[in-house]
Amino acid sequence: MREIKIMPCLDMKEGRVVKGVHFVDIRDAGDPVENAAFYEREGADELAMLDIAATVENRKTRLEWVKSVAAVITIPLTVGGGIDSLDDIELVLAAGANAVSMNSAAVRNPELVREAVKKFGSEKITVAIDARRNPALPSGFELVVAGGTRPVGKDAIAWAGQCQELGAGVILPTSMDGDGALTGYDLEFIQTIADVVTVPVVASGGAGKLEHFHDAVVKGGASILLAASVFHFRTFSIRQVKEYLRDRGLTVRL
Fold first, then answer.
1. DSSP 140
2. How many structural domains is the chain composed of?
3. What is d(CA 80, CA 100) in angstroms, rounded to the nearest whole number?
4. How confident is the model at residue 30 (pLDDT cuts 50, 70, 90)?
5. In a 3-state reduction of DSSP, which class is residue 175?
6. Stretch 212-232: mean pLDDT, rounded?
7. Is residue 99 part of a domain?
8. Could you tell me the CATH number of the domain that includes residue 90?
9. Which domain covers residue 25, as residue numbers?
10. Which of the residues 45, 51, 130, 179 is marked catalytic?
């Protein structure tokens, strides 16, 4: 049985960890270095750090943030936000990231994914897919870019399949309908993507109860469980989540 991994996420803005609801209503969630070190001690398997304002502000990921966080952890770090060239990827990896997450740039230039995989390896390339419900699209899910600010009229599920064909090693879908709402992962969205790809799928957006993590695996087909609010505001510890999953027959590393 595959091992289920827990991945806290540091959404970054102006040097601080922040958390919003439905990509807005942002509030402070602490210092990134302190959070990163704490999550590793708590038993996190991986860590994500997303510069949520980079694309909207038309700038690159802040490399100093990557370096400071990477310096205090040994677990894999995936960094996203404002990454839109092979040079950007190289700089972020050199700053200490183990993988990068691309979103808007991949949508704008799908060949960037293929070129990045060829140069750096598929295990270093994650494609993040933000979507919202739109019945006008074949799957009912529309791709949204630029930090959730711009719908692009493209089917999010078809895009996930294309990303795998381009060589992406991980798909990270986030439903804007569930993000930060603590009402549970968007299982339909996650499972629809898991049905069309064979690479690991990260459940993201909306975890608020312990059962939500279990549902993401059993009903959604995810193998990596990303969460922010419940960890930042200490609703649950990572160990609590892992013990809950283990007690229900899932494989986790305690």
1. S
2. 1
3. 6
4. confident
5. strand
6. 95
7. yes
8. 3.20.20.70
9. 5-247
10. 130
Is 130 catalytic? The answer is: yes
What is the per-residue pLDDT for 233? 87
Position 251 scores a pLDDT of 97
Q: Taking the alpha carbons of 178, 136, 146, 121 in that order, is the dihedral positive or negative?
A: positive
Q: Residue 241 is encoded by which pair of tokens?
A: 């989540």
More confident residue, 25 or 112: 112
- Reference 103, options 76, 82, 134, 123; nearest CA is 82
CB 216 within 8 A of CB 185: yes
11 annotated active-site: yes
Contact partners, residue 180, CB within 8 Å, separation at least 6? 19, 20, 21, 22, 23, 25, 205, 206, 228, 229
For residue 252, is it within any domain? no
Residues 211, 245: contact at Cβ < 8 Å? no
Q: Tens of pLDDT along 167-211?
A: 999 999 988 765 545 679 999 999 999 999 999 999 998 889 999
With tokens 């040994």, the residue in question is 74
Element (H or E) spanning 106, and its range?
A: helix 104-108
What DSSP designation does 2 have? Answer: P
- Phi/psi for 101 (5° steps) reads -120, 125
C-alpha separations of 96 from 56, 88, 248 in Å: 24, 13, 35
Phi-psi region of 141 (alpha: psi -120 to 50; beta: other; left: phi over 0): beta
pTM for the whole structure: 0.91
**Please, what sign has the CA dihedral across residues 159, 162, 168, 169?**
positive
Among residues 11, 51, 84, 155, the one annotated as catalytic is 11
Read off the amino acid at residue 202.
V
The encoded tokens of residue 12 equal 């970054």
Whole-angstrom CA distances from 178 to 76, 190, 191, 212 are: 26, 12, 15, 12
Q: Is residue 182 part of a domain?
A: yes
Does residue 254 lie in a domain region? no
